[in-house]
TrEMBL record:
<dbReference type="Pfam" id="PF00194">
    <property type="entry name" value="Carb_anhydrase"/>
</dbReference>
<comment type="function">
    <text>Reversible hydration of carbon dioxide.</text>
</comment>
<dbReference type="GO" id="GO:0004089">
    <property type="term" value="F:carbonate dehydratase activity"/>
</dbReference>
<dbReference type="InterPro" id="IPR018338">
    <property type="entry name" value="Carbonic_anhydrase_a-class_CS"/>
</dbReference>
<dbReference type="InterPro" id="IPR041891">
    <property type="entry name" value="Alpha_CA_prokaryot-like"/>
</dbReference>
<keyword id="KW-0862">Zinc</keyword>
<feature type="domain" description="Alpha-carbonic anhydrase">
    <location>
        <begin position="45"/>
        <end position="291"/>
    </location>
</feature>
<dbReference type="InterPro" id="IPR001148">
    <property type="entry name" value="CA_dom"/>
</dbReference>
<dbReference type="InterPro" id="IPR023561">
    <property type="entry name" value="Carbonic_anhydrase_a-class"/>
</dbReference>
<comment type="similarity">
    <text>Belongs to the alpha-carbonic anhydrase family.</text>
</comment>
<keyword id="KW-0456">Lyase</keyword>
<keyword id="KW-0479">Metal-binding</keyword>
<protein>
    <recommendedName>
        <fullName>Carbonic anhydrase</fullName>
        <ecNumber>4.2.1.1</ecNumber>
    </recommendedName>
</protein>
<dbReference type="GO" id="GO:0008270">
    <property type="term" value="F:zinc ion binding"/>
</dbReference>
<dbReference type="GO" id="GO:0006730">
    <property type="term" value="P:one-carbon metabolic process"/>
</dbReference>
<dbReference type="InterPro" id="IPR036398">
    <property type="entry name" value="CA_dom_sf"/>
</dbReference>
């Protein structure tokens, strides 16, 4: 099966994608009607991550007509990245991010914690600028590497100025000994949001550059949003030092617990404790990497 490399990001019609959902690994050496979804201003009150619930991931497409792609789409995320089946591409270079400090607001969305920037800079992919909108976290991770699931995954969400195209950077975290410095900055504000769905708090100027990104080696694929309406044609970049040094983010157990404490809908069980991650999709294919 042939696999076509991404040649342009300006207008998703220029992408050539196999139905098998090709994956790309980029080490640096030098829908149709297109339902537009704004991940930083979404309504997530009607769905659950509990696979056994009537509103769980397997039933998302039955909840709302605009969510049909959640269970019928051909390019759904998250996925597993099997290293033996990932094509290596070496001509895209280091991840081009141009972030800057900006006023930020912390928000408890009930199933996750989101940090939203007013003007946090942008990411550039193939000449197209994607404005940084927000970062949020899932636990455990949504994407997996060789079937391994990590303790937490952060999503830096970007959008073009016209709101039509989305790019997301995923950061994988494992529990370690030292605290994650970026999360440490917002720890003091998390308590104010505990047990208060839709509560938000302006926390002043936050520099997104403090989020630890390797940016030299990363996985890339075309996928979808991992929350309803599961819109496709999302450019995914899973950042990480690959193979034996995959994970960028390291956080101690107590820091992970602090993230869990805030992600609770009043009167309901803590959704974070039950997992705030979408299960991976298995329908994908890739080529073997270069040795």
């Amino acid at each position: 099966m042939s696999t076509d490399i991404i040649s342009s990001v300006e207008g998703f019609d220029e992408f050539t994608l196999s139905p098998a959902h090709p994956l790309y690994l980029h080490p640096s050496d030098s829908s149709d009607s297109r339902l537009i979804f704004h991940p930083f201003d979404d309504d997530e009150s009607d769905f659950s991550y509990d696979e056994n619930a009537v509103n769980g991931p397997g039933n998302w497409s039955n909840i709302h007509p605009d969510w049909i792609k959640c269970n019928t789409g051909k390019m759904q995320s998250p996925i597993d990245f099997p290293n033996k089946k990932v094509e290596v591409v070496s001509n895209l270079g280091i991840l081009q991010k141009f972030y800057k400090p900006s006023n930020a607001t912390l928000l408890n969305r009930g199933h996750d914690i989101m940090l939203r920037w007013d003007n946090g800079g942008f990411l550039k992919i193939n000449g197209t600028q994607y404005q940084l909108k927000q970062v949020h976290w899932h636990t455990p991770s949504e994407h997996t590497i060789d079937g391994k699931r990590f303790d937490m995954e952060g999503h830096l969400v970007h959008e073009t100025d016209d709101g039509k195209n989305i790019a997301v950077i995923g950061i994988l975290y494992e529990i370690g000994l030292l605290p994650d410095l970026f999360l440490k900055i917002i720890e003091k504000d998390l308590k104010a949001l505990a047990d208060k769905k839709d509560a938000e708090k302006a926390i002043g100027i936050i520099d997104p550059n403090l989020i630890k990104l390797d940016g030299k080696k990363y996985y890339r694929n075309m996928g979808s949003l991992t929350v309803p309406p599961c819109s496709e044609n999302v450019v995914w970049t899973i950042d990480g030092k690959l193979f034996n040094e995959l994970t960028n983010g390291v956080l101690p157990g107590d820091q992970l617990d602090k993230m869990k404490c805030c992600q609770t809908i009043p009167g309901d069980p803590n959704t974070f404790l039950g997992g705030s991650n979408h299960p991976t999709f298995e329908n994908h294919a890739a080529k073997a990497p270069e040795s």
